[in-house]
Amino acid sequence: MFSKACEYGIKAAIFIAINSFEGKRVSPKEIAEEINSPQAFTAKILQALARNNIVYSIKGAHGGFELDKKTIGAIKLAQIVKAIDGDSIYNGCGLGLQKCDENHPCPVHDKFKLVRDELKFMLENTSLEELALDIKAGGSFLKT
Amino acid sequence: MFSKACEYGIKAAIFIAINSFEGKRVSPKEIAEEINSPQAFTAKILQALARNNIVYSIKGAHGGFELDKKTIGAIKLAQIVKAIDGDSIYNGCGLGLQKCDENHPCPVHDKFKLVRDELKFMLENTSLEELALDIKAGGSFLKT
DNA sequence: TTTATTTCGGATATTTTTATCCTATTTATA
DNA sequence: TATAAATAGGATAAAAATATCCGAAATAAA
Question: Where are the beta strands (DSSP E) in chain A?
């Protein structure tokens, strides 16, 4: 469904959110340990999230990654997925046709649209805040 | 969402179904042309479908791929997806956690389940027959 | 200003997916 | 039985995704 890069990106963002609520910055090393991902690869993904202004990176000593506590609730999964996997999940044809729309649909166009709309709704209506709070409350986990 | 191999597999199966309704066998060459896919790669996927008894392959002169006209209605997309991409789409965690269930869920477990169940329902309730008939009626297309 | 710490980003390596090529095997038919 | 037409399948290649490495740049603090 999502690429590995995207999975890591979502989990990393959630972990950064958790820590930002407590005013703490985190390093790629900590993040990778906490979400069980390869460190250098995760660092690349964090760069992409930073370039897209989804997370903030502070270089130099005592640096790290953080989020603005006040905007964590406004960040939706859709932004992260789009920043890393692009918008093929929204626009791409389920069977890979280059041109696939109402006027020239692939065989599963309508049926696939239902699924994709559900996914889209989920991504656009799920915030980092709720996911981070759920983890803090012990309701969900980032690894194992 | 699906791998290229799976996209080709679905489209190939639909094309074989269309032709089987007319009692015609088709070759990997014809199939690849009709679904706009690489021929040799498509042939590999057809082998996989044949091994899974989803399509029938007849070797030798006048051979080709065909389907039993009477069972085309019973073949669901789910079988094809499972034969090619396995069942990760059903069982895999949305964020890649090795262990992800009700007792140890990832942060998007419940939300993701809704999407996946919708996809699963769609795959399990869509037959090759209806897709093939829709194409014959000009309601959908296999390429471009 | 120097040093230690930390992200940035280019280069490279590995793995997986996608794609191609060629020969073997099967089969209908002349 | 010989031949032509087809799929089967192993070997290989190319491309994309995943992963690693290392020096450059930035920054806080001594």
Answer: 56-58, 64-66
Domains and CATH numbers, chain B: 4-136 (1.10.10.10)
Q: How far is A61 from chain B (nearest CA, A)?
A: 31
Please identify which residue in the block is written with the tokens 């479908």: B49
Which A-chain residues 64-103 have CB contacts (< 8 A) with chain B?
A: 77, 89, 92, 94-99
* Chain A residues closer than 8 Å to B76 by CB: none
Interval A72-83: pLDDT, tens: 999 999 999 999
**Residue B50, C-beta contacts closer than 8 angstroms, at least 6 positions apart:** B56, B57, B65
- Using CB atoms, which residue from A10, A109, A112 is nearest to B95? A10
**Residues with pLDDT less than 70, chain B:** none
CB B76 within 8 A of CB B126: yes
Please check whether residue A65 is in contact with residue A26, taking contact to mean a CB–CB distance below 8 angstroms. yes
Tell me how far apart the alpha carbons of residues B109 and B113 are, in angstroms, rounded to a whole number. 6
Instruction: Please judge whether B95 and A7 are an interchain contact, meaning their C-beta atoms are less than 8 angstroms apart.
Output: yes
- Stated as kind and residue range, the H or E segment containing B58 is strand B56-58
Count of A–B CB contacts within 8 Å?
Answer: 97
Q: What's the rounded mean pLDDT across residues A38-66? A: 98
Contact assignment for A107 to B1 by CB distance below 8 Å: no
Inter-chain contact B141–A114, Cβ cutoff 8 Å?
A: no
CB atoms closer than 10 angstroms to residue A8: 25
